[in-house]
Fold each of these.
Amino acid sequence: MPLLLAAALLLLGAAPASAALVYVKAEPEGATIFAAEDDGSGARELTRGRQPQISADGALVAFLRPVGSGTQLRLVPTAGGEERVLISASSIESVAFSPDSKLLAAEVAGRRLMLFETDTSRMATLARGFVKGFSFAPDSTRIVYGLGVDATARGRADVYKVSVRGGDPRRMTRDGRSLLPVWGPQRIAFVKQKGTDRTGAIPAYDIWGMDERGRAERRITRTKVPEGVSGLIPIEWSADGARLIAQYVGADVRVGFAVDPRNGRTRSLRRKVAFDLAADGSAVLTQSGGVDPSRRHNVYSAPFEAGESTLLVRNASFPDWSR
């Protein structure tokens, strides 16, 4: 194994000394974020907000807090303490930490891919336009992202990559049908729109893979996708690149799937929403009850292979862990 790849795998697969879990509960004062051990024990109230994301080293939690007509992106230590406001915007979509926990990226106001240093709060804009998903490289030095011509789901889009230090991006696909990339240890997973023969505003997807140069494209999944449903989108790789989790998505559908990227075989996670994959690929962090906030949700750890899920937290949603 090349030395650089081995180092990247060690970085991606290294678990923090004590893995942690964060999640949201509906409390009388509003949506409240809790932190706990990754088995759900030792829960403690952390702050008010939504969509928590925990850093890979388990030290920081990024979250969103509605303020007036806008949203703030904030950071707080997992152990509790002073919060920092990174940015206020009309809207903030996806948020993710780099594998080394030193950087945080976010889709801001639907038109910017922004990067923040977690220790200094300094920020920079890496890309402008209609961002269609993003993901850090395992070594945290680059970001791959989708960029579309408009905000619609059916608009043309391609995948690009750029250094976290900035500079000119490199275009990786040129078919106008590629978006939502997820960078793994050996391959980049992304989706391609199946074609233009569907009616309506919802496109159909399958998962593909390519190398980090944008070459050696290979189709991973082959799913039948009915009208009103988009199909599978990739979420996260295991540290060794042998396992991938995905979400089956549609207008009112979110169901997690385990994917074998070598042969494209898929398995539903028993009608649960997938949120995260343990670095060793053994377990998937899931939520029952779909994504409708009015329904009851529980948080589970589900085996990647077939088996019974373990209940972690009752009446909780939108989990993330550093396992």
Note: The domain at 3-321 is CATH 2.120.10.30 (Neuraminidase).
Amino acid sequence: MLDWQWLFLKWEWWFLLSTGVGTYGLVYSAFQYVLKRLVEDIPRSRVRSVAMGICELQGVVRAWRPPIKTYYSGLDCVLYRFRLERLSRDRNRETWHTIQEGKVLTPFYLEDETGKIVVNPDRMLLELDLGFEGHSETPPVPGMMLTVAQQERQKIPWPLTVAGAMPLYRVREWFLAPGDPVYVLGGVARQHDVVEDQRQKLLARLRDLKADPDRMKALDLNKDGQVDATEWDRAVQQMEHTVLQEQLASLPNPDSEELVVTWAPWYHVGIISRQDEQAFLIQLRSRIRWGVAWGVCGLGVAALGKGIFHIMVPWWAILVVGGGGVGLAWLHHVKGGETVRQGWKLFTGGNQWFGWLL
């Protein structure tokens, strides 16, 4: 006879996991529903007639200054996020592990048929499609990665095969380039002359950098004894990003007539998407359905275990797990799924057996 008590000895852990997943799913779907209603209720504005407060704009990306380059592929853009991963094999199981990631944000213009307005992407949620993916058998060199099409033209097999335990490197980049369609939901506020201030601060920082031998030595990534053009360009991009973060932390000048679209703190919302409004709404509806499905399944499993197997779990543990689910849903709603994935990796210690959950 099967010993059911032994079989479900660890059901307490599954009960808590189901409770947390169910709470997370339902709360996240609720946040997405509120966001969907906000997108539906706010009328789309034109740049010429945009008013102070929350707004919704749609147009084309225009560079505010010379475009920056994506970190590995070297493509022109106004903002980007990248991730370098390494493939490892363990008992015939292949897993991608992140070994480097980062992002650079710069302001850009949103232009429609009536004019253009500055968009500050700091703190805004980026809803970007994958723009570049490249593979290499050796650690890739920044700015020198080839696209899949370029690899095929040069007869380089893609994806590259792995001999034995040799790692395979993968680069993925998400970016917004000049000329791309863009949808922005955020707050409109007045700003001071960001362009001139940013230029002056950047020049001062670069002068200090050149005067510091230790910092210049740290920029020499290939250790050839000198800082080449590529390494200097990367340093300038990082410095521009730092100056932008400090600049956006300052209060806007109420006497300036120039407007800027930025993260709306009064609504806790700020979104930049390459999709148009209708495509974005379809995506939100899909997230709501998946959130409800996860919530019903998770809480249903928890209720089943509680009712049939009479699982005894302290109420404080249920409250802690439920509160964690609510906090995770809020973090996912505000910061996006990438932040949740990184937090989950830190929580599980990168255990591959938990990777399927995210």
Note: The radius of gyration is 24 Å.
